[in-house]
Amino acid sequence: MPPGITIAADAPELSAANTGFMLICSALVMLMTPALAFFYGGMVRVKSTLNMLMMSFISLGIVSVLWVLYGFSVAFGTDHGSLFGWQGDYVGLSGIGLNELWDGYTIPVYVFAVFQLMFAVLTPALISGALADRVKFTAWALFITLWATIVYFPVAHWVWGTGGWAFELGVIDFAGGTAVHINAGAAALGVILVIGKRVGFKKDPMRPHSLPLVMLGAGLLWFGWFGFNAGSWLGNDDGVGALMFLNTQVATAGAMLAWLAYEKIRHGAFTTLGAASGAVAGLVAITPSGGSCSPLGAIAIGAVAGLLCAMAVGLKFRFGYDDSLDVVGVHMVGGVVGSILVGFFATGGGQSKAQGLFYGGGLSQLWKQLAGVGAVLAYSLIVSAILALLIDKTIGMRVDEEEEVAGIDQVQHAETAYDFSGAGGGTAPRTAALPAPGADGVPTKKNKKVDA
């Protein structure tokens, strides 16, 4: 996927080892979408849990079908004007031979297609975290369909498709800093500027209902990200995939530590939510840069991303945009940081010979990175806002205020995440002492109202 790859003169043969490795990586990337659902699901209030899970899971259904029908062709077909691809035998994936190899590699086209499919599924699901509590499920499904078609598939071609303008320019994006994270983060910002704030934003407490669920999701994301990142070299014949694997681990660790340090200094505590968010920020930042930097550079990139993303999540309160679960603050900012820092930390000894400013390469690679970042951010932001506006003016993007207050799970899915009707049983013994009002969990006149 990254630019700067040298293809051998002799035609490669199918490698069973690389094929198996890539199938495993594809499964790991697929796992990231349910992991994201858990991560987001734990961060919302109880009344929105199922909706957050479903906003991720529906992407598995919609985007998988679109990818087979035409998505793979648009993203990786024959280039047209450096903006999008199209290739007849990729439409419906009907003209591809069983053992036909992806050009220049030792894996079948089908394996490359399914690996990239998992990226296409995950990216729109990332957007959903910014829209918690307030979006109609039918509107979300329509938005995914249009956004994947008009934004994700063409941008994937820009960045990774042969002939795509960013690919040909030499923009380094190993596994999706621009195409996935900046793309999704900018889209999230575009949509929330259109649909507005949640009822009670900056007034009511909107705390995560299950931090253990958040930590489970973060851990599964960290695990799946090794397939996401290391698999993006599309093989295991040299040390670049191993470098990316190592850099993924240490950058994530550096970001988590930096976020926690910032939290301790700023707020006086090390929180589990901060640890989970810091880890994700590091994973995002190393995604574009890990194949081009050293392990020490990866730690630095992670630490910078952890610090800046921790600072960025508070901007929504200052500027008044309701990014419910900090998609803009973590994914857009983290993607921008990781993509730009390639221009500083690229050693020239990883995925390509391109060198950053700290390794004697001057400003050449930095300007390329800035071009890629700026173009993807602007395109996704503007087009996503337009799509949201069109949907809002036709079928409506938001649920009614009363439905939002009552709980989007019940309204949109006719279910609740937790059913306690069958829990417990029996009564307390008559001799048992009742806790005094004001003790943990016991309502008083002052604390009787409990946030849903």
Automatic annotation (TrEMBL):
Membrane topology: Multi-pass membrane protein
UniProt domain Ammonium transporter AmtB-like: residue ranges: 21-418
Compositional bias segments (type: Low complexity): 428-439
Region (Disordered): 421-452
Localization, UniProt: Cell membrane
Molecular function per GO: ammonium channel activity
Transmembrane segments: 20-40, 52-76, 107-127, 139-160, 180-199, 211-228, 240-262, 269-290, 296-315, 327-346, 366-391
Cited PANTHER family: AMMONIUM TRANSPORTER MEP2
Recorded family membership: Belongs to the ammonia transporter channel (TC 1.A.11.2) family.
Job description of the protein: Involved in the uptake of ammonium/ammonia (NH(4)(+)/NH(3)).
Record note on quaternary structure: Homotrimer.
Protein name, entry field: Ammonium transporter
